Amino acid sequence: MIVSRTHDGLTETFDGELGNAVWRCLGRRGMLFSECESFDFVRLAPGAALDERGRGDIEEAWFVLRGSGEFVADGEAPLQLREGELVLCSHGTGGRWRATADSPLELLVLALMPAAVSRRLPRRTPAD
């Protein structure tokens, strides 16, 4: 697994109308020898939002490390979330994260291939 402490392409910073966010890649599919697409750290500044549309081809597990905020899945009521809570997004689910106005929101996200895709792939194992 690769852990990045520098801005070498594995870290992205978003700064615009939705506020400030940092997305840091901790590992990618080829490095993990699993059905994992990626393992990432996301930090949203107070009041910032992150729109997750366009990633509906994967399944995700979002774990709230620090802070509080809300997740709004397409067509659903907002979920109010705080430290230690987990959100599971099935294949085809989109939504938006927003940090509360008074503190940053830090998340770990594990993105996985949907079962329909991974069942069709050849078995992958690390080399000896």
In short:
Strand 1 and strand 2 (19-28) form a beta hairpin. The longest helix has 4 residues, at 29-32. Helix content is 6%, strand content 49%.
Q: Whole-number average pLDDT?
A: 76
Taking pLDDT < 50 over at least 5 consecutive residues as the criterion, the unreliable ranges are: 1-8
Could you tell me the radius of gyration in angstroms? Answer: 15 Å
- In which range does the helix fraction lie? under 10%
H/E series: EEHEEEEEEEEH
What class do helices, strands and sheet pairing give?
Answer: mainly beta
* CATH homologous group name: Jelly Rolls
Main β-sheet, spatial strand arrangement: 1-2-3-10-5-8
Number of separate domains: 1
Domain Cupin type-2: 41-109
Organism: Saccharopolyspora antimicrobica
Protein name: Cupin domain-containing protein
What this model shows, in words?
- The chain starts with 10 loop residues before the first strand and ends in a 10-residue tail after the last helix.
- It has 128 residues and is mostly beta strands.
- The protein is built from two helices and ten strands.
- The strands form two sheets. It has a six-stranded antiparallel β-sheet with strand order 1-2-3-10-5-8.
- The longest helix is centred in the first third of the chain and has 4 residues, at 29-32.
- It has one domain (11-99, 111-118): Jelly Rolls, CATH 2.60.120.10.
- The model is unreliable at 1-8 (pLDDT under 50).
